[in-house]
């Protein structure tokens, strides 16, 4: 009686849309059950369609999401915080037409800015020795989600594209911005947070305004605008410093 009542209490699931049990999903994604559950807890992966207290089924969207997370972690060295923020924006902010534009921009602009292909890596020990940045400071950068390190061939490595951040912090220390004066790696967050917020607004603006154009033309415009916008950011920041000093 109890068993029949439990079966009656289960929710029916369309198995054509959600064909995978957790075991199947893990095998296809090449990830452990613990990792998949962690991604769900962290908001990186939607929960499955539950049929009971301890049973859920998953669809192709879950598998593709896991494959993307793994790719971003292993090939792009993206921190989980950045991946979650990116996925939230991808899910909520862009229409299918806007995503078509983004795809076209990626194909056109991706190779020149390192979007396509696996990243080169640099040994952390060698980089720290060159820059004067401590292991504790590098670890804090990882903890803050500024960059990612991993083990490769028995040594700790990071993506070559992230080297600039470690080098920059080392140069700031040499310029006198030391921990003795209260400066810490955490201070870089005011810039990374501001840049991420700016980029999200920028991506939304461009995708809103350019989606009525042929994707190839829109992608060409974005490609031409990128260096101009970078110049604007640098010069406007300098102008803000200049104006502040002139009025205080």
UniProtKB/TrEMBL annotation:
<feature type="domain" description="HTH merR-type">
    <location>
        <begin position="19"/>
        <end position="89"/>
    </location>
</feature>
<dbReference type="InterPro" id="IPR000551">
    <property type="entry name" value="MerR-type_HTH_dom"/>
</dbReference>
<keyword id="KW-0238">DNA-binding</keyword>
<protein>
    <submittedName>
        <fullName>MerR family transcriptional regulator</fullName>
    </submittedName>
</protein>
<dbReference type="InterPro" id="IPR047057">
    <property type="entry name" value="MerR_fam"/>
</dbReference>
<dbReference type="InterPro" id="IPR009061">
    <property type="entry name" value="DNA-bd_dom_put_sf"/>
</dbReference>
<dbReference type="Pfam" id="PF13411">
    <property type="entry name" value="MerR_1"/>
</dbReference>
């Amino acid at each position: 009686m109890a068993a029949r009542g439990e079966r009656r209490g289960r929710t029916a699931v369309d198995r054509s849309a959600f064909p995978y049990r957790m075991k199947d999903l893990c095998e296809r994604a090449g990830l452990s059950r613990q990792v998949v559950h962690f991604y769900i807890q962290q908001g990186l992966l939607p929960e499955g369609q539950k049929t009971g207290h301890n049973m859920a089924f998953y669809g192709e969207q879950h598998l593709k999401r896991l494959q993307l997370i793994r790719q971003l972690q292993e090939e792009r060295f993206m921190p989980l915080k950045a991946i979650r923020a990116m996925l939230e924006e991808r899910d909520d902010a862009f229409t299918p037409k806007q995503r078509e534009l983004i795809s076209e921009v990626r194909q056109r602009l991706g190779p020149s800015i390192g979007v396509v292909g696996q990243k080169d890596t640099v040994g952390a020990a060698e980089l720290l020795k060159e820059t004067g940045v401590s292991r504790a400071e590098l670890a804090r950068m990882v903890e803050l989600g500024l960059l990612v390190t991993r083990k490769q061939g028995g040594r700790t490595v990071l993506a070559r594209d992230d080297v600039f951040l470690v080098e920059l912090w080392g140069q700031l220390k040499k310029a006198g911005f030391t921990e003795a004066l209260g400066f810490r790696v955490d201070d870089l967050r005011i810039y990374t947070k501001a840049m991420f917020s700016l980029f999200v607004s920028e991506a939304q603006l461009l995708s809103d305004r350019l989606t009525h154009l042929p994707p190839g033309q829109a992608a060409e415009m974005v490609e031409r605008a990128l260096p101009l916008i970078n110049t604007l950011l640098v010069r406007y920041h300098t102008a803000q410093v200049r104006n502040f000093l002139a009025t205080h």
